[in-house]
C-alpha cells in the first residue's frame, strides 16, 4: 500500500464524493448549539465549514438566522468553541480562540454585534448564564489538559518556541492540567473561582448564588469515571460534595430558582456520551430522585422553567424529545422519530417557548438542517445541504431499522444500508460503533466514512447496536460490563447470519470495521468466527495489559472488563485480540492516529504484528497528527479511500 494515496482512483472518488457533501470553500455544512428565545427574531448557532481546502481542516464560526427562515448570516471570523443565550434572550455569550496560543476569549454579543470581550487563559469548554443574567460561569481546561476521546483523545499542547529537538514532557503535576470554573460579570476581567485539587468537568448555575458541578479530585481523563456531584458557592468557591454515584454523571443543570439540580446517571464508557436515568437532587433535603421517562435513555437536559425539565434521548431506533413536569410528576413526549435524529454524538435539543424545541436535524440521506419542533411537527428553518449534496447522496442507498435475535433469545437492534436496486446477495461491511456504551443512529452519511461510497458500489452496510448499546435501557447497556467481547460478539455475528438468511448478503464476502471499541471488535470478531473475509480496525485495542498502562483512561478497561490489570490471565488476556489474531488468516488493515492517547498507537502496532504472524496480508497506517478514531481532515478522506482499496482487493466485489 502506497504512503501517498492521493493519486489512487479510490482517493479521487472519495474526495469528489465528500466535496459534493461538504463543499469546501466556505459552505456551512453542519451546525451545533442551536439556540433561541421565544421573544427574539434570530436563532444563533455554530456553523461548521471548510474555509479552504480539506487540508486546512474544519472551521467553527458564529452564525445567525431568522427564526422564520431565510439566509444564514456569519457574525465572526474567529474559531468559536461555545455559545449560550441569556435567559431573557437579549445577549449571547460566545467563547472563541484568542490570537495568542493557549488563551481563549469570552465575549458578549447583542443584535449581531460584539459588546465586550476579555481573555481567559486556557480552553473554554462550557459557558452558562446566571438566572438573573448578570454573570457567566466558564469551565476552562488548562493548556496541558487531555481531551476526551470524542474530541480526539489527545493532550493539548501550546507552542514552546524552542528548537524541534526538545523533548515532550509528561507529568502528573502542573497547574495547566486542571479544569476550573471562572466567572465574569461582562465588564472586568474574568475571575477564577475554583482551585486544584478540584477538577470540574461540567458546571451550571443553580440559582444565582450557587453552582452545580460534576467534579473529581484529580485532573486525569480517567478520573471522570469516578466524578461526583458537588455544589460550589459562587462567591467564595467553597465546595460541598453532595452525591457520589455508583456509575457516571453527565448533563448537569441547576434550576433557575436553585431548588433542584437535574442530571443524568448512567453506566458510561466515554466522557461526553452519557445516556441513562434523568435524576434530580434537592439541595434543601439532600434527596436524590430518579424520574420516570418511560423507555427513554436521556442524553440532554435543559430547564424550560423552574418546574419543567426539557430532555432529549434515545429509545430503540427513535430519537425523542420531551418535558418532565415536576409539579405533576410526569413526562410528556413532544417529538419522536426514527426517520430523523439530532446531535453529533448524542441527541441534543434546546427548549423554546412553552413547549417547542430547537435542534440540528439529520438522517442518513438528509443533510443537516436547523429545525424547530412543536406539537409533534418538525419545521425546517434552514437547510445546510451543499448544492451538489442531494445528487451525490442519491447513489448511496437507504438506511432502515433492523432487528434480530441473539443466540440467547435477546432481541438486538441496528441499522442496515441497502444499495440502490439491490438484487440478490451483496458484499457486507459490518461497522461497529465506539463505546461500547453508545449507539448507531440514523445519522447523516457524511459521518459514515467509506460506507456511503461502498453502498454506491453495491455493498450492504450493517450498523449493529449489540448489548452494551444505549437506547435500550440500563440493563441492556450494563450487560457489556465484565463481558466485553463476549455476548456482544455473538450479537453481531447473529446479525450477520440474519442478513445472510434474508438473502441480502453473500456469506463469502463479509468484512468488519469500526473505531475505538469498534476497532477492538473488528480485530476481535475474525478470531471468534470464520465469517469474516477482511478486517479494518481503526484506533483499536489489541492488548488490554499494555492498553491499561499507556492510555489516558485506564479506569475504562477496569470497569468494562471487570477484572484486574495486575493479575495473570483473566479477561485482560482472554479478550485481547493481539493474543488470538495470529491464529486466523484474515487480511487486516489497521489504522491509527499518532497523537491518540485513548487507544495509543502501540495498540494498532500489536494488532498489525499479530496479523502479520498469521501469514495474512496486513498493512499498518499511522497518521502522525491525527487523534482518536482518525476524524480529522484530510486523514478522514484518506482512511475512507484505503478502506475502499482494501475491500476491493481482498473481498471479491459484487459481480
TrEMBL record:
<dbReference type="InterPro" id="IPR011042">
    <property type="entry name" value="6-blade_b-propeller_TolB-like"/>
</dbReference>
<dbReference type="InterPro" id="IPR029058">
    <property type="entry name" value="AB_hydrolase_fold"/>
</dbReference>
<dbReference type="GO" id="GO:0006508">
    <property type="term" value="P:proteolysis"/>
</dbReference>
<dbReference type="InterPro" id="IPR001375">
    <property type="entry name" value="Peptidase_S9_cat"/>
</dbReference>
<protein>
    <submittedName>
        <fullName>S9 family peptidase</fullName>
    </submittedName>
</protein>
<feature type="domain" description="Peptidase S9 prolyl oligopeptidase catalytic">
    <location>
        <begin position="451"/>
        <end position="652"/>
    </location>
</feature>
<dbReference type="Pfam" id="PF00326">
    <property type="entry name" value="Peptidase_S9"/>
</dbReference>
<keyword id="KW-0378">Hydrolase</keyword>
<dbReference type="GO" id="GO:0004252">
    <property type="term" value="F:serine-type endopeptidase activity"/>
</dbReference>
Amino acid at each position: 500500500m502506497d504512503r501517498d494515496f492521493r493519486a489512487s482512483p479510490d482517493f479521487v472518488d472519495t474526495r469528489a464524493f465528500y466535496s459534493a457533501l461538504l463543499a469546501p470553500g466556505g459552505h456551512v455544512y453542519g451546525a451545533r448549539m442551536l439556540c433561541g428565545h421565544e421573544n427574539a427574531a434570530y436563532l444563533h448557532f455554530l456553523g461548521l465549514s471548510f474555509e479552504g481546502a480539506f487540508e486546512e481542516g474544519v472551521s467553527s464560526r458564529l452564525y445567525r438566522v431568522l427564526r422564520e427562515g431565510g439566509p444564514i448570516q456569519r457574525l465572526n471570523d474567529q474559531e468559536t468553541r461555545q455559545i449560550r443565550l441569556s435567559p431573557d434572550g437579549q445577549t449571547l455569550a460566545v467563547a472563541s480562540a484568542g490570537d495568542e496560543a493557549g488563551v481563549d476569549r469570552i465575549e458578549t454579543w447583542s443584535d449581531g454585534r460584539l459588546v465586550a470581550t476579555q481573555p481567559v487563559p486556557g480552553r473554554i469548554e462550557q459557558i452558562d448564564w446566571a438566572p438573573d443574567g448578570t454573570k457567566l460561569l466558564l469551565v476552562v481546561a488548562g493548556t496541558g489538559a487531555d481531551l476526551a476521546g470524542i474530541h480526539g483523545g489527545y493532550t493539548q499542547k501550546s507552542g514552546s518556541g524552542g528548537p524541534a529537538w526538545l523533548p515532550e514532557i509528561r507529568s502528573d503535576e502542573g497547574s495547566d492540567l486542571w479544569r476550573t470554573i471562572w466567572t465574569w460579570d461582562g465588564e472586568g476581567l474574568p475571575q477564577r473561582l475554583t482551585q486544584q485539587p478540584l477538577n470540574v468537568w461540567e458546571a451550571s448555575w443553580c440559582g444565582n448564588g450557587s453552582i452545580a458541578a460534576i467534579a473529581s479530585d484529580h485532573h486525569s481523563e480517567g478520573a471522570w469515571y469516578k466524578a461526583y456531584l458537588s455544589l460550589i458557592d459562587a462567591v467564595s468557591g467553597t465546595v460541598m460534595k453532595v452525591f457520589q454515584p455508583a456509575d457516571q454523571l453527565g448533563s448537569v443543570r441547576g434550576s433557575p430558582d436553585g431548588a433542584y439540580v437535574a442530571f443524568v446517571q448512567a453506566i458510561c464508557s466515554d466522557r461526553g456520551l452519557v445516556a441513562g436515568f434523568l435524576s434530580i437532587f434537592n439541595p434543601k433535603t439532600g434527596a436524590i430522585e430518579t424520574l420516570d421517562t418511560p423507555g427513554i435513555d436521556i442524553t440532554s437536559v435543559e430547564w424550560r422553567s423552574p418546574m419543567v425539565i426539557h430532555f432529549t434521548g434515545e429509545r430503540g431506533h427513535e430519537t425523542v424529545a420531551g418535558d418532565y413536569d415536576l409539579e405533576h410528576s410526569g413526562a410528556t413526549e413532544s417529538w419522536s422519530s426514527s426517520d430523523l435524529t439530532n446531535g453529533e454524538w448524542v441527541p441534543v435539543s434546546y427548549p423554546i417557548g412553552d413547549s417547542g424545541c430547537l435542534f440540528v436535524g439529520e438522517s442518513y440521506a438528509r443533510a443537516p438542517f436547523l429545525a424547530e419542533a412543536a406539537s409533534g411537527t418538525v419545521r425546517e428553518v434552514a437547510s445546510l445541504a451543499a448544492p451538489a449534496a442531494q445528487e451525490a447522496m442519491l447513489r448511496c442507498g437507504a438506511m432502515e431499522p433492523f432487528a434480530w435475535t441473539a443466540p440467547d433469545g435477546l432481541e438486538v437492534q441496528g441499522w442496515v444500508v441497502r444499495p440502490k436496486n439491490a438484487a440478490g446477495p451483496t458484499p457486507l461491511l459490518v461497522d461497529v460503533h465506539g463505546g461500547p456504551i453508545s449507539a448507531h443512529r440514523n445519522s447523516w452519511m457524511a459521518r459514515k466514512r467509506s460506507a456511503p461510497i461502498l453502498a454506491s458500489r453495491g455493498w450492504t452496510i450493517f450498523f449493529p447496536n449489540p448489548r452494551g448499546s444505549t437506547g435500550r435501557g440500563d440493563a441492556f447497556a450494563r450487560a457489556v460490563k465484565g463481558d466485553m467481547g463476549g455476548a456482544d460478539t455473538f450479537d453481531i455475528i447473529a446479525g450477520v447470519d440474519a442478513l445472510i438468511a434474508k438473502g441480502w448478503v453473500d456469506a463469502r464476502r463479509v468484512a468488519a470495521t469500526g473505531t475505538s471499541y469498534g476497532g477492538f471488535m473488528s480485530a476481535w470478531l475474525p478470531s471468534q468466527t470464520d465469517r469474516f473475509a477482511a478486517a479494518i480496525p481503526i484506533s483499536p485495542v489489541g492488548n488490554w495489559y499494555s492498553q491499561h498502562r499507556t492510555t489516558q483512561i485506564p479506569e475504562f478497561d477496569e470497569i468494562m472488563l471487570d477484572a484486574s490489570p495486575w493479575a495473570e490471565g483473566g479477561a485482560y488476556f482472554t479478550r485481547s485480540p493481539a493474543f488470538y489474531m495470529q491464529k486466523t488468516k484474515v487480511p487486516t488493515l489497521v489504522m491509527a492516529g499518532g497523537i491518540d492517547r485513548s487507544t495509543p498507537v502501540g495498540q494498532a502496532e500489536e494488532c498489525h504484528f499479530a496479523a502479520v504472524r498469521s501469514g495474512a496480508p496486513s498493512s499498518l497506517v499511522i497518521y502522525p497528527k491525527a487523534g482518536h478514531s482518525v476524524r480529522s481532515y484530510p486523514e478522514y478522506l484518506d482512511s475512507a479511500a484505503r478502506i475502499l482499496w482494501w475491500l476491493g482487493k481482498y473481498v471479491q466485489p459484487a459481480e
